[in-house]
């Protein structure tokens, strides 16, 4: 495992983080085993959100990922750096979204209770809130830091201009500034290379790349011209899958498959290795749902793509956003 300091901070984190979005895991017991296995494998960075839950959880069972992580933290709190997020809408019949001061304080208290911890190492705004003044959002986060309930703050899914405005707001108010950005980044979505990565470099921020397999499209299970395996994640998203496979993403997938085969690695290993080799990427967040998948993904370390391989992949620059 490789480790890095996130942004300009003392947070020492593994370059592979485990995400608890659980797109394909419905067992609490297996989810807990997965987190424990990740920690035993050297992963010390766990990415969570107040919204995340097991695959089959009812929509109003938001927070089940935090509860499962909380049970693991009872034994392992000192060994891991945890994130959780606020701002996306959660549950049915209960909003919980937005960056208002009141919502942030309420959601932070609920997350701390579910996580069974006194402090969140990195508290992330899940989405940009166009309705609440940035002054209000970041003042609330600053209060959480000053009270010790949160150590650091960051932003997810912000455009570069939005993050720049947030940094500017914090500087003007002399309050806690974000230390990192979390964005969608993979061989299939290179959008952040134009504006966000230069900002991250300039401001010495950390960059957490989520969906490094483009929500499984780069898992090796999907091929252009072939139907997705029955019962798979993309079988359930068939019209979207067919549209994607008719576009430039199909060429990238083929190039990635050839490169992985020639090098003797799996597609997930190739895709993760590529993300982690990009300048200014601190961490890739894996969405592995099982121990087998996680072990496969750990094979992304210990080797480097050569210039010819990188050039072959660079021939197909794609900006596909999938959630
Ligand atoms: N901030 C945000 O807005 C945001 C948004 C999305 C995600 N995230 C974070 O990023 C994490 C990862 O996102 P993601 O789930 O989109 O990641 P991903 O790694 O792109 O996709 C995950 C899916 O890929 C498949 N997979 C993973 N490893 C595999 C392997 N070795 N072999 C075969 N299939 C494999 C699994 O699908 P199957 O099991 O169905 O095959 C899994 O559900 C989330 O858990 C969350 O922590 C953050």
Characterization of the model:
The structure is a single chain. By secondary structure, this protein is α/β, with parallel strands linked by helices. It has a domain of 176 residues: TIM Barrel. Helices cover 39% and strands 14% of the residues. It is built from eleven helices and ten strands. Strand 8, helix 6 and strand 9 form a beta-alpha-beta unit. Helix 4 packs across helix 5. The mean pLDDT is 95. Bound molecules: NADP nicotinamide-adenine-dinucleotide phosphate. The site of NADP nicotinamide-adenine-dinucleotide phosphate (NAP) has 30 residues, from strand 10 and helix 10.
Number of strands: 10
How many DSSP H or I helices? Answer: 11
Distance between the termini: 27 Å
Any guess at the CATH architecture of one domain? Alpha-Beta Barrel
Q: How does the major sheet shape up? A: 8 strands, parallel, barrel
Instruction: Classify the secondary structure makeup into a structural class.
Output: alpha/beta
Taking all residues together, what is the mean pLDDT? Answer: 95
Overall, the morphology is globular
**Ligand roster:** NADP nicotinamide-adenine-dinucleotide phosphate
Strand order of the largest sheet: 3-4-5-6-7-8-9-10
Q: CATH superfamily of one domain, called what?
A: NADP-dependent oxidoreductase domain
Note the quaternary state here: single chain
SSE string, helices as H and strands as E: EEEHEHEHEHEHEHEHHHEHH
CATH topology of one domain: TIM Barrel
Strand residue percentage: 5-15%
Portion of residues within helices: 25-40%
Weakly predicted, low-confidence segments: none
């Amino acid at each position: 495992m490789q480790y890095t300091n996130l942004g300009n901070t003392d947070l020492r984190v593994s370059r592979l983080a485990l995400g608890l979005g659980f797109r394909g895991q419905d067992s609490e017991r297996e989810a807990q085993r997965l987190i424990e296995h990740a920690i035993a494998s050297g992963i010390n960075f766990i990415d969570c959100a107040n919204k995340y839950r097991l695959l089959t959880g009812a929509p109003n069972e938001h927070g089940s990922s935090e509860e499962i992580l909380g049970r693991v933290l009872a034994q392992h709190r000192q060994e891991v750096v945890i994130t959780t997020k606020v701002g996306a809408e959660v549950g049915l019949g209960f909003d919980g979204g937005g960056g208002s001061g009141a919502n942030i304080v309420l959601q932070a208290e609920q997350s701390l209770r579910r996580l069974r911890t006194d402090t969140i190492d990195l508290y992330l705004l899940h989405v940009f809130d166009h309705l609440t003044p940035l002054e209000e959002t970041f003042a609330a986060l600053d209060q959480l830091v000053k009270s010790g309930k949160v150590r650091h703050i960051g932003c997810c899914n912000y455009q570069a201009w939005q993050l720049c405005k947030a940094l500017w707001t914090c500087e003007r108010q002399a309050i806690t500034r974000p230390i990192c950005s979390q964005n969608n980044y993979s061989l299939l979505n290179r959008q952040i290379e134009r504006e966000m990565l230069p900002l991250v470099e300039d401001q010495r921020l950390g960059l957490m790349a989520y969906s490094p397999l483009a929500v499984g499209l780069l898992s090796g299970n999907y091929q252009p011209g072939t139907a997705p395996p029955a019962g798979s994640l993309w079988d359930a998203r068939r019209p979207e899958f067919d549209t994607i496979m008719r576009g430039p993403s199909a060429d990238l997938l083929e190039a990635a498959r050839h490169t992985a085969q020639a090098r003797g690695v799996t597609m997930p290993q190739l895709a993760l290795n590529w993300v982690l080799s990009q300048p200014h990427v601190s961490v890739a967040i894996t969405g592995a749902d099982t121990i087998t998948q996680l072990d496969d993904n750990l094979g992304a370390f210990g080797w480097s793509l050569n210039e010819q391989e990188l050039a072959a992949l660079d021939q197909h620059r794609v900006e596909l956003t999938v959630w």
